[in-house]
Amino acid sequence: EVQLVESGGGLVQPGGSLKLSCAASGFTFSVAAMHWVRQASGRGLEWVGRITNKANNYATTYAVSVKGRFTISRDDSRNTAYLQMNSLKPEDTAVYYCTRQGIAAEVDYWGQGALVTVSS
Amino acid sequence: QSALTQPASVSGSPGQSITISCTGTSSDIGGYNYVSWYQQHPGKAPKLMIYAVSNRPSGVSNRFSGSKSGNTASLTISGLQAGDEADYYCTSYTSSDTWVFGGGTKLTVL
User: Fold this and answer.
1) CB atoms < 10 A from the CB of B79, how many?
2) Which CA distances in Å does B29 have to A37, A99, B3, B39, B109?
3) Is A61 on the interface with B (CB under 8 A)?
4) pLDDT for position B2
5) Cβ B34–A45 below 8 Å, yes or no?
6) Is residue A79 a contact partner of residue A11, using CB atoms and an 8 Å limit?
7) What is the mean pLDDT of chain A?
8) Which of A34, A39, A45 to probe the B interface (max B CBs under 10 A)?
9) How many beta-carbon contacts under 8 Å exist across A and B?
10) From the first residue on, what is the mean pLDDT of each consecutive set of 10 residues in chain B (110 residues)?
């Protein structure tokens, strides 16, 4: 069974940093591309970014809204993906989902989400 | 990258069919067959319902179907059931090597 478990969420002040982790199990993590998607309370889904696998050089791509502030990385030896968030703004407050990319650019499995609150 | 355009809400009676549209541009929906649809119930993570425009993952009811014409994709749900009441989101891969979601559609089963 595919499982994605996010951790590391919490309250952070504007301008601060936070790092989310996503522990994966139930599939061959090293071959999968991984995405992060967020959702502010009462709002829609917003794609955050993606990291490919080693065969594709761990290439990353980001939404314009987070580019230059957020960094996605992975540790295949630990079956874990990460989302480093710097220079956080109140508008970054959201539930952050770790997701796995499927065979045709879709995200097919989602974690339960980690709440990040940016507030003073 | 602007969000894909979905109607804010649609409704239908049990047993009826409804269609949710998702409009983008030639740089996303129109340029790739990488449109997918997600169902989200309140307080839950989204669930993949359709991928690659018209493919259903294992376990998804065949009452759900997807299609695409030009820059617009559509999700059709036939034989509406109370459990179908949820928010639905479309998404597409884009020419910028990014992904973009629609704003979401709230489906009400009357």
Assistant:
1) 12
2) 19, 21, 11, 19, 28
3) yes
4) 82
5) no
6) no
7) 97
8) A45
9) 66
10) 92 97 97 97 97 96 98 98 98 97 97
> Nearest CB to A45: which of B32, B52, B101?
B101
pLDDT digits (tens, 9 = 90+) for A9-66: 999 999 999 999 999 999 999 999 999 999 999 999 999 999 999 999 999 999 999 9
Establish if A62 touches chain B: CB-CB under 8 angstroms: yes
Q: Is A76 left (phi over 0), alpha (psi -120 to 50) or beta?
A: alpha
User: What is the phi/psi pair of residue B56, to 5°?
Assistant: -100, 130
Q: Where are the beta strands (DSSP E) in chain B?
A: 9-12, 18-23, 35-40, 47-50, 64-69, 72-77, 86-93, 99-101, 105-109
Residue A53, number of CB atoms within 10 A of its CB = 18
